[in-house]
Design a protein that fits this description.
This protein has 93 residues and is α+β, with helices and mostly antiparallel strands. The chain is built from 2 helices and 4 strands, in the order ββββαα. Helix content is 20%, strand content 24%. The structure holds zinc ion (ZN). Zinc ion binds next to loops.
Length: 93
């Protein structure tokens, strides 16, 4: 079975499930029973979202030529410790 798209000039677009290759150029509209012509559209083509495409490109580029970094990405440099004897004994992160 395949889904075919048709357009009624009065009621708009609708879909009909028919056996593969069984779609005619005209079918009766389910609402008004008038003639509805077949609409040709792209068959289930999914486009990759831009953010995902960028991430995939970066992952592929990183596998070939990794970026050289001077610090851990996404981590801020440690702030200067406040002066004082009590703070000097606290553990450093
Ligand atoms: Zn109609």
């Amino acid at each position: 079975m395949a889904t075919y798209e048709y357009r009624c000039p009065r009621d708009g677009d609708f879909e009909v499930r028919l056996p593969l290759g069984g779609a005619g150029t005209v079918v009766p509209c389910p609402t008004c029973r008038g003639e509805a012509g077949r609409v040709w559209s792209a068959p289930m083509l999914a486009r990759t979202p831009r953010a995902l495409g960028t991430a995939l490109d970066r992952a592929a580029a990183s596998a070939e030529t990794p970026e050289v970094v001077s610090r851990i990405p996404g981590r801020r440099p440690a702030a200067a410790a406040p002066a004082g004897a009590a703070h000097a004994r606290l553990p450093r992160i």
